[in-house]
Amino acid sequence: MTQVLWPRLLEYVVPAQYTGTLKPLCRCLRELAEKKQQEGEEAACLDYSGQVKFPTPQGLLARLLVVASSPYEREGTGCAALQLLKALHQNIHAAVGEMWVVKIPSLLQYTEGKTENSLDHAQWEHVLLQFLRTSLERIDDSAWSSRICLELRQQMAGYASPSKEK
């Protein structure tokens, strides 16, 4: 079942029309990723040369960070997105793995005990942008960074005009 769910569920992460299903989707994918990691590093890696059209690493990073910018929206979908990002670290880029394993739990801790009203949204946005900046510095690949810019622009077109994501 893992072999069927893993590729199919990943297809629904990036398109904005599936935002309402992201919390359970992120949780399921995180569980599947962790299970695949237990099977071995190779089992957990996405096969971009196969028949299934996976979202690009840049597309996953862009979408999950945008969702994480509102951690309490839709009953905690943003926190679930961060947890999925941590589980997918080796599929995003090899250079971010160690940093994300340490940094993402501290991002999640930052949100604990807070609510939509008590979170300093400007500070949270700053922390996420700092996380992205540090990640891109670790990746240190201008072509990779250019693709994330293209993904962000492409995804922005899919968000409704008055949405927080946009």
Overview of the molecule:
With 166 residues, the chain is mainly α. It is 67% helix and 0% strand. It contains nine helices and no strands. The chain has helices at 2-10, 22-39, 41-44, 57-68, 73-87, 89-92, 97-111, 121-139, 142-156. Helix 2 (22-39) packs parallel to helix 5 (73-87), helix 4 (57-68) runs antiparallel to helix 5 and helix 4 (57-68) crosses helix 9. The longest helix is centred in the last third of the chain and has 19 residues, at 121-139. It is globular, with a radius of gyration of 15 Å. It starts with a helix and ends in a 10-residue tail after the last helix. The model has no long low-confidence stretch (mean pLDDT 86). It comes from Chelydra serpentina. This is Maestro heat like repeat family member 1. Pfam families: HEAT_Maestro_2. Residues 1-166 form the MROH2B-like HEAT-repeats domain. One of its GO terms (cellular component) is cytoplasm.
